[in-house]
## 1
Amino acid sequence: MVTKKKEPLVKKIETLAKDVRKTANEKEAPQMDFPIRALNNVSYDSRKGYFQIGDRVKSRTLTFNTVKTFAQTLRMVSESKKLIESDDIASKREVYYVSKGWGEAKFDEQPESDTVMDDIEAHFGVNREQLRFMPEEKGGDVMGKLVIIDQDPGTGRDIEIDCMRFGSGAYSIPTLVEHLKFKTSAKFILVIETAGAFQRLVKHNFADTFNCILVSMGGVPTRACRRFIRKLSDDKKLPVYAFTDGDPYGYMNIYRTLKVGSGNAAHINEFFCVPKAKYLGVTPSDIVRYNLDTHKLKDVDIKRAKDALKNDPFVLKHKPWQKALKDMIKMGVRVEQQAFAKHGYNFVLETYLPEKLENPGAFLP
Amino acid sequence: MVTKKKEPLVKKIETLAKDVRKTANEKEAPQMDFPIRALNNVSYDSRKGYFQIGDRVKSRTLTFNTVKTFAQTLRMVSESKKLIESDDIASKREVYYVSKGWGEAKFDEQPESDTVMDDIEAHFGVNREQLRFMPEEKGGDVMGKLVIIDQDPGTGRDIEIDCMRFGSGAYSIPTLVEHLKFKTSAKFILVIETAGAFQRLVKHNFADTFNCILVSMGGVPTRACRRFIRKLSDDKKLPVYAFTDGDPYGYMNIYRTLKVGSGNAAHINEFFCVPKAKYLGVTPSDIVRYNLDTHKLKDVDIKRAKDALKNDPFVLKHKPWQKALKDMIKMGVRVEQQAFAKHGYNFVLETYLPEKLENPGAFLP
Amino acid sequence: MSEAVIEKQESLFDVSQNGASQEPLSKANGKLKRTTPKNAQKLAAGHREISVSEFFTKNRHLLGFDNPRKALLTTVKEAVDNSLDACEEGSIPPKISVRIEVISETRLKVTIADNGPGIVKSQIPKIFAKLLYGSKFHSLKQSRGQQGIGISAAGMYGQLTTGKPTIITSKPSSRKPAHYYELNIDTKRNNPEIVKEEDVDWDFAKTGTEVTIELEARYQKGKQSVDRYMEATALANPHAEFIYTPPDGEEIHYERETKELPPEAVEIKPHPYGVELGMLLKMIKETKERNLGLFLRREFSRVSEKVAEEISKAAGFEPKSRPSRVANGGVEALYKAINETKIMAPPTTCISPIGEELILKSLTQKIKADFTVSVSRPPSVYRGNPFLVEAGIAWGGELPQDDLVSLYRFANRVPLLYQQSGCSITGAVVGTDWRNYGLSQSRGALPAGPAVVFVHIASVWVPFTSESKEAIADYDEISKEVRLALQECGRKLSRHIKRRKRQADERRKRGYIEKYLPHIGIALQEILDISEKEKEKVIGNLAHVLEESRGGAAAVGADEVLPLEDDELAKEDES
Amino acid sequence: MSEAVIEKQESLFDVSQNGASQEPLSKANGKLKRTTPKNAQKLAAGHREISVSEFFTKNRHLLGFDNPRKALLTTVKEAVDNSLDACEEGSIPPKISVRIEVISETRLKVTIADNGPGIVKSQIPKIFAKLLYGSKFHSLKQSRGQQGIGISAAGMYGQLTTGKPTIITSKPSSRKPAHYYELNIDTKRNNPEIVKEEDVDWDFAKTGTEVTIELEARYQKGKQSVDRYMEATALANPHAEFIYTPPDGEEIHYERETKELPPEAVEIKPHPYGVELGMLLKMIKETKERNLGLFLRREFSRVSEKVAEEISKAAGFEPKSRPSRVANGGVEALYKAINETKIMAPPTTCISPIGEELILKSLTQKIKADFTVSVSRPPSVYRGNPFLVEAGIAWGGELPQDDLVSLYRFANRVPLLYQQSGCSITGAVVGTDWRNYGLSQSRGALPAGPAVVFVHIASVWVPFTSESKEAIADYDEISKEVRLALQECGRKLSRHIKRRKRQADERRKRGYIEKYLPHIGIALQEILDISEKEKEKVIGNLAHVLEESRGGAAAVGADEVLPLEDDELAKEDES
């Protein structure tokens, strides 16, 4: 393992520890501050483009009631410092198991350790990945006009990965993407909800034909996936178009999370969202225009749409989304990406997407 | 699209259609046979190595009660022929949507079309992928000492994908793998349940150190994933070692499905299982040997283990598995892959796996 | 709430009547303290007899006057039961008018008139204003009646809550004017108090009786309403005509289905199997028969000379033994002997069924259904008591398609409106597998579907689960008969439903040819690239094959979906 | 099942007593047919009076003899109630023995003895073998008693089911021998029948009464058992001593907590607000007072001269008006006037509470708990009836930790064992938020925890929901008082529980210093690479800080988990 020069985050950790020691030795109760991670401490500024955490802060002072969490927080911070210094990583689950060596201070259930981890992220204003804690799940597949520059884990030397050279396969995004660099001649990134739709576009060489990069999210995009798209689009100034099922889940849980982040993760949305993403489809108006087969909206869909219309700062800012959700509620139906197959399997790539891509200005914000 | 010479499967489809026409014109009721896909028509022969379908057959004769399914079956078969001839593919969901153009013969819900698809697979004794129907989900990640040979979807020319050159990323297995070819110098394939454990091994260059190929299944392996491992291990005569959580789900739902297939898919297990797989861990005896932190078995775990001991032809054939399941029930606990983190994050790759790999003869069958 | 109000008020009322132990006013307002202790002599002085009407004034819920809603139903029910019984005893096809009028928010006036034989003048006051005065209490045969309490209790409740007397008009002779009475009950003495009496004209019928009671009550629709009671009563009494005027106006006329009266139930003697030890002792003590054999033969039914001898000997006596000898210490042996001797079941002439035909007519006329079935079971016996079960089902038509069926329960032609869930009739309906008969049914529930289910139990002694007489106790013998009756109805119904279904099926299948065969044609055309003409030929041939196969279709295609017998194994290949 | 058996048997019994309309044997076995129609004259001949004991023989469930299990409880309850009442009236601290013996599988013998004043010889037969004979029916004061039916009904039930007479031994004088009687009831005439009588020695007490009844019954443990009844009765009657011998042997002795008898409840006149219109009419018709004013003042409580005048005038009369004038059409106006006039609440001397101190003593002695509280509320009034609520809670000790609390309900010191869920006491317990007082509680359920909850309602007239007198009706006034009493107990309890919790908390927190502070030390050492000595210093300082902060700890750390207020938004970032 190579020891690098002290990282700024390590310094921050040391400062925290020093503060605790100093306060203790002054016979005062040490204290840690955390921004409050709740919807009423979140704002959405369409210029900034993501859900942003507000000013409200919660202080955790050392008391009998907080002493266990206090100890766990410091031990986890220390764990993070060790990982950074040894250039290692640990999954959230692994960190939870590490705590089993902490005697009485161990976590009983993983949600407890995840909460402390979120607190630490928020306290330092960094993301979990910088702390060297990584999620269990990786981040989706990529193919198209893109060369990714990574390092060989053995030699540390740069390697280039050409995402046009995967045949029918694809590049699987790693959990940590911060160190990746890119080369590309693509004109846009098309982000796709389902692996099935992705596979069809791969099979038919869509990326080459339209000179683009395809990303498959496989449902709600993971942090790694969002960060990858964000970094790629920022570095290479590429527009990002989202293509999901036409239902409140696709609109709100998938697309909105991709674009502006979530309320719960407001303290790190800054890094983990893609503000420049635009919504290509499937929109409620596509249902009519392409005469698509639909399914009845479920109660949970309607609830989700109504909640969004009422509470979601993103929707409240964007009239077109309000209209889309209202239209959907009124039509009472939802539509899937695969619905185009009714007109032939390749209708989606031969007709729908080309027609849509001719006028990106009409995409939903 | 390039038209190739007539495939054997197309001939089979034509034969079926001709039979129907001939019988009809003789004023007899046409009939189709399907092997019965149920556990009581399944056998396990440890020499063959997979769950095998028995002789019992169900005949579907054209009657008022069967006429709808009959029509749907023939239309889907025709769909398959079109896909083969145009060298195209269609996801299960897409096929379901295509049926929406069949008027009264359309499928109301996808499970109906999936059942007809299974019937067709069973009737022709081929797998769905040969019919050009593909699942929605892809098949897991790969990295290590492997070069995959695929074709460029645009040019149709061979391309080589070096799985050592992905940095922190990985190769994502496509839904169809039949056409892939391999070059490798690896000594074995290590198949891993969780993405987290996989990522740690990638990060620490395990594949290079141990000269192997790593495959991440992400839970129960998909058909594509199983087929990929099977094809790779057959073509290159590589042993396959499985590394999962130590619980009845990891043993039965993940490992057993990987190795011998499932009862429901007995008609295609021949292609979709990896009979030569061996179970590396985590075994119940590892819990004691490595002093691992455990979780209490849930009721569903205990039920799963007891059912397997009672009914599963695979378990009934292998004493060591009976012992392992009984031990687990007796200990009343399960263990996760991440549990090794208690001894340090890299204990698993620096100590556990090397110790295990020194004696593959001791792996569970 | 309202129940309790009543009880409280009664208590105050009673006290006001009590002259005993009135202490001076000053004392009653004093502090709590112990008064002089009473010895047995002093205590004895406080004891006195209590009249039955005083008792029931204080406990009127015992008679069904728990709350204003139930008080209304009880009043109507008691009067209608009396009217029906009177008409039947007079062999007059009943015509009964029931009218409910609103006096104020909490007060209603109920008037019931019948065309029965009327009541002789001298009996009117006692029948309507004396508790425990009646004709049916002692008879062992099927009857609607209570025990000579009902109508007087209703009058007493009215008097208590409104201060108004009960008004009776009765015309026992077609040639003379009617008697008119206004009556109160003197509750202290349980005796009628005549407020007014005179002769009047009355033209509802040639003979008959009319009673009017004003009472604190509430009219409310629903399953336990007077509306439902009238509807059900009309269903179970197809020989009677009812004119019902609810408070909201619209008169409802239930026509009779027959002019013929039901066969009269004959009174029988008790069956030996049904006698308790204490009673047997009492009977043998009080018998006027001169020996054991005669006692057994004459005071019980179904005891022949031979049986009497058998019982006597088994008990260690002779048929000639004197009853007093047996009474003196031999009763337990006699009791045992009776229950060990084989005795013929009791006669069943004491019960009077409605009859299959009339139930059918009644349901057909009164329920707007498509199809009606009925069954009248032969009499059976439980614990020495003869009983008989009848059932009917009306199905289809305007009945609601998806609700649970409406269950009408009757005991001796009287509808049971309360305690449906605790009743063994309900149990038997729920316990019958209606899916066999074409209705849908959830586990442990009534069947669902467009149907009315009618069940009548007729017996000398209906075993109710409680004093409120609204649910039948769970006797195996009775449940079994109910089940058999329902199954018989069910089978008839099922044949009907199946026929309907078959017809619908035929139509549906004929549709299949048009719907699905063309798709087989399209597929063959696509796969084999055949001509339009050849495609049509194949479709035509297949249509022919299907038409031919129609008969055996159901049998062949039964196992359409492949069974997946091991859930755990089946789940694993979902991708 | 068993309930119905009883009913059926009664019916046969009654018939056997009936000489009327006996037809020849041959006829009873004949075919169903209509006999000659009866006209009013013939029908009239069938009417006759029915004795109250005949009525109750046929309807014994009305008196609590629904089934063998309940019959046992009712018998014990009636006898014990009588004994307690007798002792109290004789100002003797009660000592009562209850013994249940097994005769056969279905037959038990119950013997209850008391040390009351005894009964004079001449009264014994009527008190024990005549229904509706008693001393308490007419008095408006708190009493346990039924209406002169209970013990005679128990005897009648025993006689009917076993043929055995009721056996009474009573000693009204300490200097003379006791009277011994064996009694049956002549049900046809509702009169006692003396089987045997003699003078005997009896040594349970100086004076007193013992009654033995053999009956068909079942002994069974549980919430509705005699065991529970005895335990509860002892709890609510701390001035009484009980010696209870259940059939399985082991004698249980409940000691008395005081020798002092409860204050005697004084009889009062009815309050005007509680009178129904019908009663008022009757009262004014029958009054012997010479004018309206005196009638109002003397026959009601709380009517002063001034109030009487006010009422009279409001009704359009003068206080001097003759009652007969008012009776003649002025009663409705009088009724209205009464309810519109302000009248003082009734005197509360008619109720006799147990008292806070005795409830406390009783609970402390009889429940193995750690901590006991009690509350006796001041009297209050509902609808003119005075009443009073008392409550107590015993907590901790050997009581089961996780079960729902045991609720003991009482009305006038009599335990209520049935219909817990329908009772407004239960409603008030469920409706109280016990989490405020340190017990856990699910929505709509009794609280859970190691506690016994005791609630007593004492009143001249307890408003039961039904004849079975096992549940109290939902009067706002009563529910409110129960709630207030429970809340007062709850607050006391909560102080206790909080103190306990605080102590446990202290211990727990002291443990925190040892458990968690070293980990803060380890983390600081790891991060800052400090020496072992410096680490110990920091830990020591932190321990000091924590010890100092102990007081305010609870307030500061309340919001430990960050709130996620929008579920929908919160879910999306799970990776």
## 2
Amino acid sequence: MQLLEHQGKALFRKYGIPVPEGRLAQDAEEAGLIASSLGVRVAVKAQVLAGGRGKAGGILLAEGYEEAKAAAAKIIGMRIKGITVREVLVERALSPAEEYYVGLTVDRSRKAVALLLCRSGGVDIEEIARSSPEAVYYRALPPNDELHPFKARRMALEAGFDRARILGIGGIIANLYRLFMGEAATLAEINPLMVTQEGKLFAADSKMILDESALDSTLEGKRTLAESKDDELERKAIEKGLNYVRLEGDIGVIGNGAGLVMATIDAIGLNGGRAADFLDIGGGAKADVVRKSLELLSEDKNIKSTLLNIFGGITRCDEVAKGILEAVGAGSLPFTMVVRLAGTGEDEGRRLLEESGMKIAATMDEAAQEAVLAAKGAC
Amino acid sequence: MQLLEHQGKALFRKYGIPVPEGRLAQDAEEAGLIASSLGVRVAVKAQVLAGGRGKAGGILLAEGYEEAKAAAAKIIGMRIKGITVREVLVERALSPAEEYYVGLTVDRSRKAVALLLCRSGGVDIEEIARSSPEAVYYRALPPNDELHPFKARRMALEAGFDRARILGIGGIIANLYRLFMGEAATLAEINPLMVTQEGKLFAADSKMILDESALDSTLEGKRTLAESKDDELERKAIEKGLNYVRLEGDIGVIGNGAGLVMATIDAIGLNGGRAADFLDIGGGAKADVVRKSLELLSEDKNIKSTLLNIFGGITRCDEVAKGILEAVGAGSLPFTMVVRLAGTGEDEGRRLLEESGMKIAATMDEAAQEAVLAAKGAC
Amino acid sequence: MGILANSGTRVLVQGITGREGSFHALRMRAYGTKVVAGVTPGKGGSDVDGIEVYDTVLEAMEAQGANASCIFAPSSSGADAIAECIHDGMPLIVCITEGIPQMSVIKALAEGARTGWEGRLVGPNGPGLVTVGEALIGISPAGIFKKGHVGLVSRSGTLTYEIVDMLSKAGIGQTTCIGVGGDPIIGTTFTDCLRLFEDDPDTKAVVLIGEIGGSDEENAARFLHEGSHKPVIAFISGRNAPAGKKMGHAGAIIYGRTGSAQTKIEALKDAGVVVVDKLWEIPGQLLGILA
Amino acid sequence: MGILANSGTRVLVQGITGREGSFHALRMRAYGTKVVAGVTPGKGGSDVDGIEVYDTVLEAMEAQGANASCIFAPSSSGADAIAECIHDGMPLIVCITEGIPQMSVIKALAEGARTGWEGRLVGPNGPGLVTVGEALIGISPAGIFKKGHVGLVSRSGTLTYEIVDMLSKAGIGQTTCIGVGGDPIIGTTFTDCLRLFEDDPDTKAVVLIGEIGGSDEENAARFLHEGSHKPVIAFISGRNAPAGKKMGHAGAIIYGRTGSAQTKIEALKDAGVVVVDKLWEIPGQLLGILA
């Protein structure tokens, strides 16, 4: 679950990492009031989960009520990489003397927590990592409950950070580690970690991803997860307990198992089509999951045909067939259905669907071809 | 910082330890309403930090609005070991099939976390520990961030707990350990851990002490600490930042260093008097701390004389003398002052006090005798 | 032969009294797997269709000589089940459970490394493994496998079944098929499996089914670059998946030019691997190699 | 002679640029202690009245051969300062800082045990120690000490000064006086100190100043029970303190019949220790013993 900048900064505050003074505004008026109560030059920042906000005009500087209100009015409602901005963070603007990069992430290959430090923070960190990898300090940390500040200070020294700032930086790294472990993060970045002209340290931006498996499986956890989604259908999917990601094509895809769904999307691509989504019903899904999945896709107006691809292991093809019939029975689907069934319960499933006049594709390749043809025919 | 039962149970809930359904009531009416909304037999329990509540009549069983209201009316306002009951916890009454004891504490000698388990929980656990120590299972745990449930289950088996319940009990022990480490506890007891007739597990009581050094030194932490004190003056002391404990005698005691203060209290005892408090101004205290300390003791109407005993190391006797004079200047003190000064700044301190007509005792013993005499004379 | 498990493997099933655990324990036994014990804390002394249940892994190992465990636990206790096996020195752990927090798995493996555990974890969040005709550990549908000389290793469950089914229908049998698991943090990697297949005389060729994300495929390619090896045919799914926004700079820095379908395919091709574009090309390619 | 520190001890002061740190560093040096370095992260390269300051303990040890550290850190970073010393193998750590969470100290000591650290921590929350005429490490007022043959170990700072002052005024000099610290979890215990005094030829008798709570005095009594030892005179403060409500059953179970002034006094008397009722009886008793 990726967090918005202001959500990440709330966690920073909780763990003692200094962030610039500021508050979230839902509209231009509120943004103006925050700016005037802060009484200093502010940055008005779009809260969306898209990179390159700054270049897209999603971050503006302002001073005083009128300027901040105008800036927020420009930003709220703006679309950045397809996402509409609904909120802005209004916070004290800083004058950086230096910008560092501090990041923690799960290193899949080493099965460890990776600490990354770089003297040159800001947007170009990836470019630096590519062009001069020796400029990025890497350290695999054991998964303990604590990283002592003294160790963090030594790492900061090894990374070439300013010696005069290592007390503060060491504390920030140690606190970021506490946050990482305490909140079950898989990514926690401060970029940039700003040293102001006065020598003070601030986390000027946050990028945080939490491990969804570690969220309590309570309603609360689910709601937070849903709120983190910019897309309306993705939010609905979480409420229905479906594993769904919206894509940009016109062919709906449903399958059992992430690998099979991705392979199905690829098969559509190889046949000249584009998938409208990724929807994995998982293992052992019952009829109602299939019905709910088809109902969800019915709400995507872009979809012209839908390919349902099942290889039954624990999942039974007859259950899937029942789910399809339930969805069709509840109201006609707004797209052409292409079904491919194989494995456990295949015969019974085919029988059920063929009785109701539905055609079953013989192979995955054939199914993909049919779905692409159907989508093109519907244009 | 010791927590009340309901505060401890709130932490239990936070860490997934099952507690009986219930809520806190400030008056009899509210207690009745809680009981009727629960719709079952309830226990109405005095919320005070004193042992032996049950024997003192601080826990009553009731069913329905009227009975619970009556029970709460009896308990609220009652004095248990000198503390007035202000609140009651109203919660579902349980029918125990078995009662276990589960406790975690800091083991000072072994410098470890000690886990204690006993098949016979309830009030008589200390008696059992004395008469048949082999009935208490002890395990020193390394101070890790986690105790795996599987290990906790094996310990529960070794302690002779019912095999059929170890899944639940192991989870509770593991969660209690998470709580102990996560909330910086020095004691966390579930006594009894109740197995109901239906085989369900509940923490029927809580006893928790948190390490005051680990509370954030924020106002929030201080307020929580202050709220945990039953005594009005102890709450005030925390707000003033003074290290004060109220005792039951009539001779005020102020000193620098816990050992010296305790020795001063003992010297008063040896001379036939009783101390009214323990007040340690710590090392290097300035005049204002001394003034605040005397002001605090002025509010204790039991105090007839006060002995201020200082051995100056980092603390300077002249600063202490200034503090005394400030307190005297601000209004006459309601008790006789006996002062003993030695060590750093002794000469200057004596001079300041003698100029203002105050007498200085020559030794600690003499000072104690004078304070006892003064208190007796004031009767 | 085959790798990881064979007819001598004595399997215990953790979570055997649950719905999934009991269902699959009996299916495994029906396949011929030696399912010697079950573990469900608090249910020790009972049995599941004759399979004795114990309270702890240690008891099951001591009483029944279990040397492999198949974990069917709720996601909240999956990490604990793995930790218990590691603590007791279980040689092979196959974890089916999904939804285990990544850090719990990292911690359990780190604890294993610290205490000198020399076993192997397959998964979590995978279908398990099958050494055809000898042992099925996990949830794979038994009917699709056919004994033969191709090893298979995959990050995906259903995609594996899909391919195994194709192979068997094309007359191409398998030695061992392993689903390494779909989670970011897994125990046994592609490289580990390739190494084991290299030493298995029965395996003549290996099918590797990768997908986007992480760098396990690139790591495997690096291993295959060193010295000669058995022929490998690979398929990478996810070419049409949107670029992951999740990795952040830290991911990009660590993994560098890895993680996309393109980098994986290039790395494998550079290492001499035949990478097919279409799933259904695998049997034909294998027939050419095995001929 | 004396124990723990002597004229050869090379002290570094952690937190030397703070108000307390600089004040006491200079007082220690004025006493004759070899204060060879200071550590304040971020202040490396500066100096405090000629004492060079380093960013890390390791740098100070390497550059100046420091073999003891005196910690003046805020309570929030005291545990970190101890952990840094243990990590770098510091032989003697004297921690003055108070308010360090108990679990942080337990963790630091456990880490030391795990990594084979063979040094010693005195404190936290104590006044430090003085080997009279050789080295003062900590915050004790220098003027009260007098060189002689009595060792002193105490849980309380000011009470120690009180007694040392009495002894010196009575003409009884000291070898080493140690405040072990007032916290529930401390590094060096009464027993540790008694063991060291036993091996110090200059120490002829030991004064032990205990107080209620814990079982360190009872543990010391148990040690003194074993074999013969130098004469010990003890005083226990807190007889008139109210019974601690804080321990709970767990405390009562672990410590059993320990913790009260009465149990401590009895245990020490049983071990042949002279326990005085009044503080001011100590010099008289000592004169009897030393005569």
